[in-house]
Amino acid sequence: MCLTLSQVTKRYDDRTVLDAVSFDVNAGERVALLGHNGAGKSTLMKIILGLIPANEGTVSVLGHAPGSIIAKTGTAYLPENAAFHPALTGQEQLCHYLRLRGEPTKHATPLLERVGLGPAAKRRIGTYSKGMRQRVGLAQALIGKPRLLVLDEPTSGLDPVSRREFYVILDELAAQGTAILLSSHALTEVEARTDRIVILSSGVMVANDTLANLRRRASLPIRLQVSATTGNADEVASKLSGDRRNGVMVDLVCNSEEKLARLGDISALGSLVEDVDVIPPSLEDIYSHFSKGGGA
Ligand SMILES: Nc1ncnc2c1ncn2[C@@H]1O[C@H](COP(=O)(O)OP(=O)(O)OP(=O)(O)O)[C@@H](O)[C@H]1O
After folding, report:
1. Angle at the Cα of 224 (from 234 to 215), degrees rounded to 5?
2. Which PROSITE patterns does UniProt cross-reference here (predicted)?
């Protein structure tokens, strides 16, 4: 186990901002930490990094206390807006970090190449886009091959292509055994890119499961979007008791137990139907369900 949190509680004055939070992150696992503003995500990350203490509970980072030498050496952190010196080139900045960590500066080039910054290595960071600066942050986080990577909103402000590329790198790291804990507000992107989702709501952990299991537990309605063949939308809508959305589409809503039977009804309509799309509840729907106490 790379990270274990057990009953972690944090109070500021009399206010409890984390309330008995417990979860693990295994080697090679990508876990998303979701929560509204002020839910306690950054506080939890600071505790994991050993920057602030918890009031109660225990945290084990790579089998050691947060902030201990072994925990610090094996953990990398990427803050939301990593700041770099604009006058330095990517290469110079990374060499600087390598020296601070007592690592050979010859590692700068492979690290920059790893995050796709090879061609820009000799350009000043002041000329980099936000996505490129985030990659410098990621390259810095990869120094010393961390076993646990903690990322605070790593893709905020990145365009979809940069986000995808960023996650490809995370996927490679996870495949090599790095445990990844990342916070995000971008729900749809973590949907496909993480193995497990932890949801914090006002400091309370309201969910900790795979998306598939959260879907099942929330048992939110599934939408079936039926495309009727030309001129048959009214008949399809009436036979399926669905809602005609436009000239060809008919919407049905059902729960997961009814899904197969409804698909059977649709298929029994034969040539009246052109196609059907099954639309499961989105992560936003699930997130909203659990944040409102639906998991209790
Ligand atoms: N040093 C502090 N002193 C007092 N209260 C604090 C302190 N740091 C954080 N808090 C409070 O703790 C709660 C959790 O804050 P935290 O920054 O962990 O939330 P977050 O989930 O990271 O939010 P965001 O998504 O906005 O970054 C908030 O109510 C915040 O005001």
Report:
1. 160
2. ABC_TRANSPORTER_1 (PS00211), ABC_TRANSPORTER_2 (PS50893)
Q: What is the pLDDT of residues 243-284, one digit of tens each?
A: 998 888 999 999 888 999 999 999 999 999 999 999 988 777
- Quote ipTM for the complex: 0.96
Instruction: Find residue 199's DSSP bridge partners.
Output: 34, 207
Q: Are 184 and 34 contacting, i.e. CB atoms less than 8 angstroms apart?
A: yes
CA of 196 to the centre of ligand 1 (A): 23
39 close to ligand 1 (CB < 6 Angstrom): yes
Asked if 201 contacts 291 with a C-beta cutoff of 8 angstroms, the reply is yes
For residue 61, pLDDT over 80 is answered with yes
Q: Are 10 and 18 in contact (CB under 8 A)?
A: yes
| Residue reference for tokens 């006002």 | 202
Cα 23 to ligand 1 centroid, rounded to whole Å? 20
Q: Which atom of ligand 1 has the smallest separation from the CA of 80?
A: 27
Domains and CATH numbers, the chain: 3-216 (3.40.50.300), 221-280 (3.30.70)
pLDDT in tens, 74-105: 999 998 877 898 999 999 999 999 998 888 99
Q: Read off the pLDDT of residues 205-214 as tens digits, 9 standing for 90 and up.
A: 999 998 888 8
Does residue 37 have its Cβ closer than 6 Å to ligand 1?
yes
Atom 8 of ligand 1 has which residue's CA nearest to it?
Answer: 43
Cα–Cα distances in angstroms (integers) from residue 281 to residues 130, 226, 286, in the given order: 32, 17, 7
The model's pTM is: 0.82
Ligand 1 proximity of 40 Cβ (cutoff 6 Å):
yes
Burial of 247 (0-12, 13-18, 19+ CB in 10 A): exposed
Residues 169 and 178 sit within 8 Å (Cβ to Cβ): no
